[in-house]
Automatic annotation (TrEMBL):
GO terms for cellular component: membrane. Transmembrane segments: none annotated. It comes from Pseudomonas shahriarae. The keyword Transferase does not apply. This is ABC transporter ATP-binding protein. Belongs to the ABC transporter superfamily. Keywords: ATP-binding, Nucleotide-binding, Transport.
Amino acid sequence: MSSDTAIAVNNLSKCFHIYDKPRDRLLQMFARGRKQYFREFWALQDVSFTINKGETVGILGRNGSGKSTLLQMICGTLNQTHGDILTHGRVAALLELGSGFNPEFSGRENVYMNAAVLGLTREETDARFAEIEAFAEIGEFIEQPVKTYSSGMMVRLAFAVAINVDPQILIVDEALSVGDELFQRKCFARIEAIKASGATILFVSHSGSAVIELCTRAILLDKGEKLAEGVPKVIVGQYQKLLYAPADKVASIREGIKSGGLERLELERESKRSAIAVEVSQAADNGLEEYFDPHIVSKSVMSYESHGVLISEPRVLNASGKQVNCLKRGDTYRYTYRVAFSTGAVAVRFGMMIKTLAGIEIGGAASSATTQDAITYVPTGTEIDVEFAFECNLNPGTYFLNSGVVGVVGEGETYLHRLIDACLFRVLPENAITATGTVDFKCISAFTISSVEHN
């Protein structure tokens, strides 16, 4: 393994034995291999990848794709059936926190035991104990048996131990839920500090925007296979296309991802997004008046597979109803699109999202907060014109708009159709602007100068 490598996974596979009846386990013991009383379930099959030191890598995949199984094997809490795993550096895992605690031991005793498992000597744990205790915020309960803890207290203590061992490799499962909002923010701030220190981070996430923002690379798993690996924006696009595909299109989309066909399309799309940035930056300004520039057009539109619904005609209108794509800060605009239903749909909601050119979600809205407030039923042949009014509180720059329609299919809610990068608009520059960043929060500065007399 190279000195720059933190994690190397080669042809990793994991098979579980599935028994239909409890007695089949006993029969299998006596069969001595002459007969098989179980079914094989391959949670992972021949997965390989390498992660270099200092990288932050996200793992994406639908439920049941093998993500958690992979993390458990890298951490050493689950043995592989085939393949090799090599790690270089101290590993801390934030998976099923507290699962290794002894309920009869006190919190203090469990801290020392858990820290030893993570590779700390007693002297190192002594030096870190005060920080662990302060981070966990469980007070005098640190001296009480863990069996007296609430589930939240136990998880907080386990997190405090794992996060304070100065890991060189941090493995995080998105299922992590620790305490209240303030404690969660403290946890994530600590993870960000670990990343800044140069540690390697591998984490499972269902949040495409988090992967795009935090990761240097992403890996897509599905049904135990590694379908793709590469630039986060490209992998997130493939994941979302697979996630919201109709059942009869999933197989063809999987093959497209594995063959590299969808990757080429995504790379072309990203190339067009970069070209858009150049074109828009060269566009002429028409004073500070809003207007429509026919050259500012999204060339990177991505359409999800349709569930009998199609979105069309996305555009931005000003207060007088005219189409514009060069907007003024502070004014209110309407984002509109048309939705055609070629089949009936249940519990229908509409949505929009504003994103940066890099794909980071800034904000958006849904037509209703829950499925209970959604349109109960939309019959076949219906067309609906959707409109979202928004105040342009963005600083000068170029932005994308998404369009989406969701409804209940089977037992859950899913996208009936969605357009990524459906519409492009530009916020016009202004002279002497003091706002910074992406969103204008109407900040007002003030300061007081005090004179100091010198002797």
